[in-house]
Amino acid sequence: MPFPAVFSAWLLVLLCAVSGAYCLRRVTRAGGADREARGAAAGEALMGFGMAAMAVPAGIGAWGAQFLLAVFCGVVLHALWLLRAGVHHAHHLVGALAMAYMAYPASLEPTAAAGHGGGAGLPLVTGVLLLYFAGYVLFGGARLVAVGGGGQPVAGGPPARSAELARACRLAMGMGMLAMLLTM
For 155, phi and psi rounded to 5 degrees? Predict the structure, then answer.
């Protein structure tokens, strides 16, 4: 893998890990106050760390890809559980399904790098996911810019700043998802 590709892959790992860490911080700061917000932040933290693991350039081997596939299937179940609180959690489900979709081909090939050329997915499914995440990133970016400083409070921080950081983390993970889907 050429140096620019390795460097950008490590930047993606860093971006996803930092996003996951921030979401984990939101979980711990929320305490017992808002159970739904804690559950959503926990799902986002797990996705961030899982995306970071999948983006490692050297790959994590077939056993690692199988482990990630199992984790993302668990995240799918968690996202389905969150859906009972409202359809606004559908993005968690789409993200979890996308990660499981990317981990599956890598889990089948013993020498495959997890998520990176570890087998191609179905072009139609990959295309639909690319369109979804491209739209999510464009819409989320426009919304983040439009909000400016008047965000809604998010558990675990000053209202406007915390809400903007949470949106920025979601946007960063959406861009990471888009980048990983482009490698399929």
Answer: -55, 130
Q: What is the mean pLDDT of the chain?
A: 80
Overall average pLDDT of the 60-86 stretch:
84
For residues 120 and 129, the answer to whether their CB atoms sit within 8 Å is: no
Task: Give the range of the structural domain holding residue 94, as residue numbers without chain letter.
Answer: 3-182
Q: DSSP states of the chain as a string? A: --HHHHHHHHHHHHHHHHHHHHHHHHHHHHTTS-HHHHHHHHHHHHHHHHHHHHH-TT--HHHHHHHHHHHHHHHHHHHHHHHTT-GGGHHHHHHHHHHHHHHHHHHH-TTPBTTBSSS---HHHHHHHHHHHHHHHHHHHHHHHHHTT-PPP-TTS-HHHHHHHHHHHHHHHHHHHHHHHHT-
Q: Which pTM was predicted? A: 0.78
Indicate if the pLDDT at residue 149 is higher than 60: no
Its sign, for the CA torsion 101, 53, 178, 77, is: positive
Q: Which has the closest alpha carbon to 83: 73, 74, 92?
A: 92
The number of folded domains in the chain is: 1
